[in-house]
Amino acid sequence: MTTATLQAEPQPVARVARTYLNERTTIASWLLTTDHKRIALLYMVSITLFFLIGGAAATLMRLELLTPQGDLVASDTYNKLFTIHGVVMVWFFLIPSIPTVLGNFLLPMMIGARDVAFPKINLASWYLFMGGGAFAVFSILSGGVDTGWTFYTPYSSTYANGHVIAMATGIFIAGFGSIATGLNFIVTTHKMRAPGMTWMKLPLFVWSLYTTSIILVLATPVLAITLALMALERAFGVGIFNPSLGGDPLLFQHLFWFYSHPAVYIMILPGMGVVSELITCFARKKIFGYQFVAAASVAIAVLGFLVWGHHMFVSSQSIYAGMIFSVLSFMVAIPSAIKVFNWTATLYKGSISFHTPMLYALGFIGLFTIGGLTGLFLASLAVDVHVHDTYFVIAHFHYIMVGGMVMAYLGALHFWWPKITGRMYPEWLAKLAALSIFAGFNLTFFPQFILGYLGMPRRYHVYAPEFQVLNVLSTAGASILALGYFLPLGYLLWSWKYGKIAGPNPWRATGLEWTTPSPPPKDNFDTTPIVTEGPYEYDPRATEAELRAAHA
Amino acid sequence: MPEIALAPVEHQFENAEQQREAATMGMWVFLATEALFFGGMFLGYTAYRTYYPEAFAEASRHTLVAFGSINTAVLLISSTVMAFAVRAARMNRRGLLSILLLVTASLGTAFLVIKGFEYAREISEGLLPGPKFHIETSDPVHAEMFFYLYWLMTGVHALHVTIGVALIGFFALRAWLFDAFRDHDTPIDLLGLYWHFVDVVWVFLFPLIYLAGRHS
Amino acid sequence: MNEMHPTPRTYIINCVALLALLGLTIAAAYLNLGPFNTVVAMLISLAKGGLIALFFMHLRYSKPLIWIFAGAGVFWLGIMLVLALGDYLTRGWR
After folding, report:
1. Which tens digit of pLDDT belongs to each residue from B142-155?
2. Shared domain check, C25 and C70
3. Which of A2, B129, B136, B181 has the fewest Cβ atoms surrounding its Cβ within 10 A?
4. What is the predicted ipTM?
């Protein structure tokens, strides 16, 4: 309809710029699109829905934990809740979040390409993701799964109730969506760069997506075969994990964590890339030590594959293997610390402004540092015996996943929102949301460090009465956090229609994506850009001088 | 623009060479993924064989080494024919390409038929893991483990062969009927890479399964 | 395109070599070499896989980048096997 009118009378619409959003507007044009920007939006809507499902489960859990007794849900329901929360948040929100939404949207634009290398595979990855999601939702609605997101055998393969096979199938299928995305990004980064865009001129976000993709394509297949083996064992009673079949349950853990530890870096690396972009823009400064930040991404991706055994220190793994895994785990701290130090050094003598994305970026640095340092406690063999499977672990990885990754995702969403929609979000509401998320987050999870240190085990819906105060604090924090999450959901949608028109480059940021109109046209650039300078050519002194002139 | 009318270049690429290199690289990345997919099963096999070498050797002697050896030869020859098919596509020899692809697909089918007979005989001997599994060895539990891994790994491999045969047959028809790959041999190239990869997996499976305990 | 490509002769020699290695690995399996049976079998498999990759998959004529991707699959497989076996082989140590 619309397209027909567009072609019939070109005159009236000539004033409205052709963008990827208004080029064609039928539902089919969205569901069959191969445009990386539209696929990014498809992913954005989908993962937001999954975030709401995972968040609902978390809300119920926090409500239950208000009191030491189990008065809201039964233990069985609680088991299902934390499984839903884990599975949905890990595989259907965190893993896809930044790569599939912002990565899909930005990667081709940042390297000056018209699209990713394989647009059809890109669309297929979304359908795989949704197909996997459908299985997961079916599994939840038809009674749920109580194994925890880790599916440890032989419980999952033999004794657990519920729809374990449907859930595993969902993750299996969604995994191939991940692989398709990773494959696309790797080839795109290698082959689609604009003339002059050498590796050392790539934005650090591209480096982080590239290294994330390496993990996606090399780790995800191992998860796929592991879950397939578990499901076969459950379906047919033959397999290699159950001790009664002569198997070794630890083999499942080896295979599972060979994927799931690197998966942590799938979640955090893109966030680190985002922070590099935000810090430089809002400090108006070149990144400190570009090569080191880029190389640290590669180092994290590779080292991330060598540490999985630290999840198995108390699982009767060989103590010698435990020692090796412990040492290797400590080594991951080196590239992570390089990044944190370099971001901090970037801020030094910068011309810093505290727009919403910057608040999220600064929040990320602080919270990631806490999460990372507590990881070192857990990587030491002796301390881990004490805090293994307690709330200390929960707090540690939520500082990385929520304090790190979700902060980075929201920061990125706000930073590139004007590029995606062409509109600005309302700044003061956004700042309020960012601050309540930061406050709510810390109030939720800092008490959990203490709870864990005092010995409260994870995955129980009842607990000793002396833990109640800290649990009430945590639940109170969670409600502030929830409020903070609902705010952006509301005002971002509002700004889509009513926000201030942003213009091509509201942040005066460098980077090729800001050289094209907002929202961008379908092919991103009118002519293929030619790159002659590095990614972060900001000048803090000039910015200061401008500011002084403006306020004089 | 090159003077010969090359493959249609999709809008995201600048030229045919970029398109070709991207496709080839994509295939190699996919094969790396596949290697890790099989790798999980290979790890299972290696771990248990390290722990129960005797049980695995005894069980391995119950496999049908003649079937396995012939099948290895069949796959190796099919790979050779596939290599010639890729060459024919590069030289734009449509008739030769279709014939060579059909020969490759037939050899792949032969592999599956032989495998099918082998499976049938093993089922009749009670070597399919499950309630009816039966074997005369000193450690039947881990012999069953061996046979589970055998069925699993050869089964997943056979699935890959089946997909390969279907694609090769389909491409043969497209070459024959529509001259589909004139000046556009990248798809054949990628198909070849996939087929050779499936061959490499079998090259490693063969000694692990059929030859583990032959000497004693 | 402009890359070098193997001749039919190369393919035929490669095929003969692969079949010869197949014969060799079967023959070697029936000799008692103690623990070296597995080593020999795996070395022969590596040789066969290498020949297929180098000549049939044109790795020998490919750019270094393709070597890196082919190598990455093997390398990461190695990480998985080595570190996991590091657990299995040392569990009995005291």
Report:
1. 999 999 999 999 99
2. no
3. B136
4. 0.94
